[in-house]
Design a protein that fits this description.
The chain is α+β, with helices and mostly antiparallel strands. The protein contains six helices and ten strands, in the order H-E-E-E-E-E-E-E-E-H-H-H-H-H-E-E. The strands form three sheets. A four-stranded antiparallel sheet has the order 1-8-3-6. A four-stranded antiparallel sheet has the order 2-7-4-5. The protein has a two-stranded antiparallel ribbon with strand order 9-10.
DNA sequence: CCATTAATTTCAT
DNA sequence: ATGAAATTAATGG
């Protein structure tokens, strides 16, 4: 199945509607939980994580986005504040378009509205899949759920050649597992042949 | 090199 | 089986 990458709007179009490129340093927040949604954000360069912290201070990562992907756009359509944080994982360049300009843009370019529907639907679909796998007590089931989710972003489907470009700690925080459990389970999965481990790399 | 960050192992529960 | 702490490996300057 081909995954619609959210959202990748043409940069020049964004700029023509008043968007600005902004540089974020590693670990710099783009927005925080509770902030008002004021912009449409699209990554030009770098990576951004969406996260929360539970009552023990343990991090849960909802997603990690890369080049040409947007985030937080759902909150533009609601009057809610962000329920999550967005933090730059490396030095990144992010294009941001003020909310009003964003709506002006999609009203003048209705096809963007359709694309937005498709992309938000895609997100809901995979959120449901993730919730299913996260509901499992079995660590391997959780990891498989995440790996399938990540691989779905990948166009070509190749056997054991999709590189999971996350650290084990990040994988742990995406699945609610401890890093040791991730390491142990990945090794078990390699023995069973469902993944390949090369150096530190995970190939699925 | 040294400092930082990530991966793995050890050890107790 | 799991997680905190210690150890080892890699990465970056």
């Amino acid at each position: 199945m081909k995954t619609i990458s959210c959202m990748n709007i043409d940069e020049n179009l964004l700029y023509s509607f008043g968007a600005e490129g902004r540089d974020y340093k590693k670990r710099e927040p783009v927005f925080k939980e509770g902030d008002h949604a004021l912009y449409y954000f699209q990554i030009n360069e770098g990576r951004v994580k969406l996260n929360n912290y539970n009552e023990d201070g343990k991090e849960f990562i909802h997603n990690i986005l890369g080049k040409k992907q947007s985030f937080g756009e759902a909150m533009l359509f609601l009057s809610h504040n962000y329920p999550i944080n967005a933090v730059s994982l490396e030095d990144s360049r992010i294009i941001r378009l003020p909310k009003n300009n964003f709506f002006e843009m999609i009203s003048q370019h209705p096809h963007l509205s359709l694309e937005m529907n498709a992309c938000l639907s895609q997100e809901i679909y995979y959120k449901l899949k993730m919730v299913q796998s996260l509901a499992s007590q079995n660590p391997m089931q959780r990891l498989i759920g995440l790996l399938d989710y990540l691989k779905s972003y990948h166009d070509e489907d190749c056997h054991h050649c999709f590189h999971i470009a996350f650290t084990r700690q990040q994988i742990a925080n995406l699945t609610g597992l401890r890093v040791e459990t991730v390491i142990r389970t990945l090794k078990k999965m390699e023995k069973e042949g469902s993944i390949t481990l090369q150096d530190q790399k995970i190939l699925y």
